[in-house]
Structures are given as structure tokens and as C-alpha cells.
Design brief:
This protein has 658 residues and is mainly alpha-helical. Helix content is 75%, strand content 1%. It has a two-stranded antiparallel sheet with strand order 1-2. The N terminus is likely disordered.
Length: 658
């Protein structure tokens, strides 16, 4: 049966549930006060009427408007970029808005007083502007846009986390705002948001024909469509919708990914249908979640709860309705292979050793001046510096190898422990250990982290079994990552001291690493590297497709399980050292490729060396640049890796154009 004929009924069911939840929550109050109390301003002394008119009804309106806007924005992103992974979350818009709010709070609070909406919207537009600047060089190729968006989002998140660690007494409120809050005190925000969303929706209506033709890819130019202009305008409208929403209520970005996917899964195959059904589903879904929170009197962030409830719904709909999440074909950027790969690998090895020596002998004196140590002084400092350096390099190597394995296993360049939720699974496993074990040892934390990472990968491959869509696999991974991240946010919002101990660990600090942990990490890294090299031949055959691997005698099921287990182990061990926020697993394989190391063994060696080099440099800078305080290595790796990756990306593009 064709699932598209049922989409109106399923959409109507979601709307009916939203109306029923609203009636259950607000119906008794309206029946008691009368319909007039909901339509006209009450007198100041009427407490219940004031609550209804100035708080509950504006909150309902904001849930409808924000859900509608995010559903429409997600549909636009996915249509323009031709990838179902595209959403406000994966393009860095919400993270940019959050960073702008943090900067304004610390250094220019007058901006927030002047216009909180304008401040956060400016951050969202700035983040997307960076993505536009890079994507323009690649003619808005979908992979380039989304990959750049992920980097920008992770970069902004790292800066926000760093600022929160350094100014927690000023920025503690970002936890609440970051989770998405629909609380309202009057109608001003709803009245301000409505015309903005209406104007953006009208522009989308005028662009329906051009957006439909975008499905043809570059061939649309033959029909007279200004391809770059249409893509840029569509992305600009989507950014505007997201920025206006985020500036009003905070981050509820999961709807931008879930609503279009659910709309497609229940039968909305045509763009016109998705542009109507996805916003309606987004609005109804957010209303249901918000009304349920009000009925249970739970003081939890609406955005986090939306992710907790929305992920299971999304996954069930995708699996039961046979959702097709195949991305439309796009041209991949071809990077020329290096003529002398061994020379480039030698350069990376020399650079790694040079940074390691610098990290051991150089530092800051008591007065803050730069100095080098030798002799007896170096002997005293070596037990402190060497273990953290070894642990940092080992973590970088393991994350790089895990990212390379996942990208080859899924045949998608955006796969990595951070994107697929494997790092979030490690954090969730550690959180469980903190609640179950009074004084957890390193073995307890490692077991919990490995179990969490392996559970995520098992769920991913179990749900994606039988599907040849790498994009569907990524949507599942992003969804699970969003679910686990939302769960951690809810636990952190509870104020439990055991959960709050995760905050410093999530930043990725190495200054408490001892010699035992360092040498253990190095052993895991060397063993992981050896295992990957031994599996290189079947891994290359698997990259060409399951049919090719099977014809060469590879047991697909056992090999996939082996790669999953190895990736989970490498991710868990590395994440316990540098936290889940480092994006070395995403960046190092791409850096090796942009450096000209493309073929199998060269690429894996290059990725491992780039991962170790990033982490070694990050550990040294984190120890010295903000003396006498220390900055977490995981965050420093994020701050350092973003510009390096962007430089390699731009240089490779210039070589391709030469």
C-alpha cells in the first residue's frame, strides 16, 4: 500500500492529540472563568484570569509558532541541501545564538537589555554566515555545507562551555535557556514573532516551484533556474526562521530534524505536502510536550523534553512506515592524492615529536614568563607533564581511528563518534556508573563508557538493518545522540551533585591524569592501531559495498560487529580522557584527506597522526596559554582543530580550481 494516502489522517491524529492535551490542561480553567477571560485583558486583581491571559495562552501561542517555524526551517534545509541530516542543529545556528548570548552576558549586558532577540539572532546569522562563506567556494555542495555547519556548531559549543567553566556564576542560566523555555509573561514575544514567521512563510510560498526544481541538482540550471541564488535564499529564510525562534525561546532544534523526517515517513513525498505537514507536526508536537509538562507541574526544559519524547516517535515512525531517507545524488569534492605520501607522513611525525618535546620542556614560570626547564627541574616536572601528554596523544589517535572506521563503515564523510551519538553514549554510560557506584574506579568508568558506546552502535545497526541508506543511518545516529544529550541535560537540570560532576569531565581535562592511566591509554591506542591495520584489507573491500566484500569472503555480519566493537572501545577510552566535546573523530580523517593522504593505509596513518598532533598541541596550549589556570584539552582541541580544518578545506578547493 502507498503510505502517502494515509499522511492526512496521521497528521490530523497528531493535531487532535495536541488539541486534546490543550483542552485537558486549559479547558477546566476556561470553563470556570468563562470564554471572555481568554479573549480580553483581565483586571489586575483576578489572579487566575491574569495567569490564563498573560501566561498560559501566550505560552500556547509560542509553542505553536516555534514548532511551526522549526518544522518549516528543517524542511527548507533538507530540500535545499538535499540531505535529510540537515537541520538547525547540524548547521550550527543554535550554537551560534547561544554563544552570542554568552558573550553579551559577560561583556555587553546592555545588548541583552536592548534586544535579547536581536543578540541571539545575530549569533545565529553569524554562524550561518561562516557556513555560507565556506560553502560558497564549493557552490553550496550539500556535504560541504553540512560538514562546515557541524564544525561551526561544535566550535561555538566549545567556546560556550569554556566560558561557562570560567564564569559559572554568571552563565549558569544558560543551562535553562539552552534547554528551551516556553515560559511567557505577556503577548509581546508572540506578537513580535508572528509577523516574522508569516513573512518567511510567504517567501517560501513564492519559491515552491524553484525549490522543487532543486531536486534535479545541477541540471536545474538548464531550466533557467539561478541555482546558487535559490539555494542561498532558501538557506537564508531557514536561518531566519531558526534564529527568530531560538532568540525567543532558546534551543528546541530537534524539531527541525524530526518534523520533516516524520512528515516524509508518514507519506508526504512531495515538497508541497512536506511544507504544510512538517510545520503542522512541529507545532502540534511541541504543544503536546508543553501541555504535558504543565499538567505534571514538571519544571524541566521544554527543548530537552521534546528531544526525549520526539526521538522515540521519530524512530518508530521511520521504522514502521518504511521511511525513505535516501539523499539525492551530489557531486563529491575530489582531492588529488599526494605524489609523495611518505614524505607527508614523515612531516606529520616530525611535527608530532616537535610538539611533544616542546610540551615537555617548555612552560610558564612563577611570574608568568615563558621558560624552558632542564636538569633537576625537568625531572621534577616530568611526572606531571609526560603522563598528560601521553594520554592526550593516545586519545587523539583513538578518536581519529574511531572516526575513520565509522566513516568507512557507513560510507558517509559526516560519520564520527560525536555525530553518531557514540560519545554521548559514553557520557550516558558514565552517568549511570556515577549513580550506581558510590566510588567508581577507572575500571568502573571504562566499563560504563564502553557499554554506553557499544549500546548506541548496536541500536543504530539494529534499527538500520536492511537499509542501504547511509543518510538514514546518520539520521538515526543524530537522533540517538540528541536523545542521550537531552537526557543528560535533564539530569543536570535536576541539580544532583553526582550529575554536576560531569560538567568538568565533559570539558575534557587532562591535568589529573596519572602515569597508570597514561600508559593504559597508550596501550589501548597502539592495540587499536594494530587492529585497524590488520583489518585494513577487508575494511577496504567493505567500503566498496557489501556485495564486493561478500564476494571476497568477508563475513559481513561478523565484520560489522567487530568494527562496531573496536570503534566503541576506542571512543570510550578516549572520551574518558578528553570528554565528549572534542571533534577530533570528525576532523582528523578529513584533515588527512585534505593533506593528500587518501588511500587506505596512508589515510589511516595520517588521520591517527593528525589526531595525536591536535591533542598534543591542545594539551600544551591548555596548560600554558591561560596561566596560572588551565584550560581543558578537549575544548582546546576543538578550538584549535576548527581553523586548521577550514584552512585545509580552502586550500584544497584552490588546488582543485587551479
Amino acid at each position: 500500500m502507498n503510505p502517502s494516502r494515509y499522511s492526512p489522517w496521521l497528521s490530523a491524529l497528531v493535531v487532535a492529540i495536541a488539541l486534546a492535551a490543550t483542552a485537558l490542561n486549559l479547558g477546566p480553567m476556561i470553563a470556570n472563568l468563562g470564554l471572555r477571560a481568554a479573549l480580553s485583558p483581565p483586571s489586575p486583581g483576578a489572579g487566575q484570569a491574569v495567569l490564563l491571559y498573560y501566561s498560559l495562552l501566550p505560552r500556547l501561542a509560542m509553542a505553536c509558532l516555534c514548532g511551526f517555524a522549526l518544522g518549516l526551517a528543517g524542511t527548507l534545509f533538507q530540500q535545499v541541501l538535499r540531505n535529510p541530516l540537515a537541520s538547525p542543529s547540524t548547521l550550527g545556528i543554535e550554537s551560534g545564538a547561544q554563544l552570542a548570548l554568552a558573550i553579551a552576558t559577560l561583556w555587553s549586558p546592555a545588548l541583552i537589555g536592548w534586544s535579547r532577540d536581536g543578540t541571539t539572532a545575530l549569533g545565529g546569522f553569524a554562524a550561518m554566515g561562516i557556513v555560507f562563506a565556506v560553502a560558497w567556494r564549493f557552490k553550496f555542495q550539500p556535504v560541504a555545507v553540512i560538514l562546515t555547519g557541524l564544525v561551526v556548531g561544535l566550535y561555538c559549543t566549545a567556546i560556550v562551555t569554556l566560558l561557562m567553566l570560567m564564569n559559572d556564576h554568571y552563565l549558569s542560566g544558560l543551562f535553562i535557556w539552552g534547554g528551551g523555555s516556553l515560559n511567557q509573561n505577556d503577548w509581546r514575544q508572540a506578537a513580535s514573532l508572528l509577523p516574522k514567521i508569516a513573512a518567511c512563510s510567504f517567501l517560501v510560498l513564492l519559491m515552491v516551484r524553484q525549490l522543487n526544481i532543486l531536486a534535479l541538482g545541477d541540471a536545474a540550471q538548464n531550466l533557467g533556474v539561478r541555482l546558487h541564488f535559490v539555494r542561498a535564499l532558501g538557506l537564508f529564510i531557514a536561518v531566519a526562521l531558526t534564529a527568530f525562534t531560538v532568540s525567543s525561546v532558546g534551543i528546541i532544534g530537534f524539531l527541525g530534524l524530526a518534523a520533516p523526517a516524520i512528515a516524509r515517513a508518514i507519506g508526504a513525498r512531495r515538497l508541497q505536502s512536506r511544507l504544510v505537514i512538517a510545520p503542522i507536526i512541529g507545532a502540534a508536537f511541541l504543544v503536546i510536550v508543553d501541555q504535558a509538562l504543565q499538567m505534571t507541574a514538571a519544571s524541566l526544559p521544554a527543548g530537552a523534553i521534546t528531544a526525549l519524547v520526539g526521538v522515540p516517535v521519530l524512530l518508530v515512525v521511520m521504522l514502521r512506515r518504511g521511511a525513505s531517507l535516501q539523499a539525492m545524488p551530489s557531486h563529491r569534492q575530489v582531492v588529488p592524492a599526494a605524489k609523495h605520501p611518505l614524505l607527508r607522513i614523515s612531516i606529520l611525525i616530525i611535527a608530532l615529536f616537535a610538539v611533544a618535546i616542546l610540551a615537555i620542556v617548555a612552560g610558564r614560570g612563577v611570574d608568568g614568563s615563558w621558560t624552558t626547564q632542564a636538569g633537576a627541574m625537568l625531572e621534577l616536572l616530568l611526572p606531571w607533564r609526560l603522563p598528560r601528554l601521553i594520554a592526550a596523544v593516545s586519545a587523539g589517535i583513538m578518536l581519529a581511528l574511531a572516526g575513520s572506521l565509522l566513516q568507512r563503515l557507513t560510507a558517509n564523510p559526516m560519520a564520527s563518534p560525536e555525530v553518531l551519538g557514540v560519545s554521548a553514549g559514553t557520557a550516558s554510560g558514565l552517568l549511570c556508573v556515577l549513580f550506581l557506584v558510590a566510588e567508581p574506579t577507572y575500571g568502573d568508568r571504562l566499563a560504563g563508557g564502553v557499554a554506553g558506546a557499544a549500546a548506541v552502535l548496536l541500536v543504530l545497526f539494529a534499527m538500520g538493518r536492511g537499509s542501504r541508506s547511509g543518510n538514514r543511518f546518520l539520521v538515526l545516529g543524530v537522533s540517538l545522540g540528541a536523545f542521550l544529550t537531552a537526557l543528560i541535560s535533564v539530569v543536570l537540570a535536576s541539580g544532583d551533585p553526582r550529575a554536576l560532576s560531569l560538567v568538568s569531565w565533559m570539558a575534557g581535562s587532562t591535568y589529573a591524569v596519572g602515569s597508570t592511566l597514561a600508559w593504559t591509554s597508550l596501550a589501548f591506542a597502539l592495540a587499536g592501531f594494530a587492529a585497524v591495520m590488520l583489518l585494513l584489507r577487508p575494511l577496504q573491500q567493505f567500503t566498496l559495498g557489501e556485495a564486493s566484500a561478500h564476494s571476497h569472503g568477508v563475513d559481513i555480519r561478523k565484520f560489522r560487529a567487530l568494527i562496531m566493537g573496536l570503534a566503541a572501545m576506542l571512543t570510550a577510552v578516549a572520551t574518558l580522557i578528553v570528554g565528549p566535546l572534542s571533534f577530533v573523530g570528525l576532523m582528523a580523517p578529513h584533515m588527512a584527506q585534505r593533506f593528500g593522504l587518501i588511500r587506505g593505509p596512508q589515510h589511516l596513518v595520517g588521520a591517527a597522526l593528525f589526531g595525536g598532533l591536535l591533542m598534543a598541541t591542545a594539551d600544551f596550549l591548555g596548560r600554558t596559554i591561560y596561566f596560572p589556570w588551565q584550560l581543558p584539552t578537549g575544548l582546546m582541541a576543538t578550538l584549535l582543530g576548527g581553523p586548521v580544518f577550514a584552512l585545509l578545506l580552502v586550500r584544497s578547493r584552490r588546488r582543485a580550481l587551479a
